[in-house]
Amino acid sequence: MAKCAICEKTQSNGNKLSITRSHISKRSPRTWKPNLRTVKAEVDGVVKKIHVCAKCLKNGKVKRA
């Protein structure tokens, strides 16, 4: 799985909870994946395609080419 080139965010694992009548009855595994975008960005003066999460793009941590 790819990860963000800026903040190194990757997928995380946990449990999906089934809630019925205010009791947690079943737990099943699930994964949360980061919202990654492939972007042409300037890295060390060279234009490259990198995977960047949407949060880093929104905050302006990446200089797009």
Describe it.
There is one protein chain. The protein is mainly beta and 65 residues long. It has one domain (12-58). Helices cover 8% and strands 54% of the residues. The protein has one helix at residues 54-58; strands spanning 12-20, 23-32, 36-43, 46-53. The longest helix is centred in the last third of the chain and has 5 residues, at 54-58. The radius of gyration is 17 Å and the shape is elongated. 11% of the residues are buried.
Which features would summarize this protein structure in a list?
65 residues; two-stranded antiparallel ribbon; 1 helix; 4 strands
Task: Please write out the topology.
Layout: E1 12-20, E2 23-32, E3 36-43, E4 46-53, H1 54-58
Antiparallel strand pairs: 1-2, 3-4
Cα gyration radius (Å):
17 Å
- Biggest sheet statistics: 2 strands, antiparallel
Return the string of H and E elements.
Answer: EEEEH
| Poorly predicted runs | none
Task: Tell me the number of helical segments per DSSP (H or I, 4 or more residues long).
Answer: 1
Provide a compact summary of the structure.
With 65 residues, this protein is mostly beta strands.
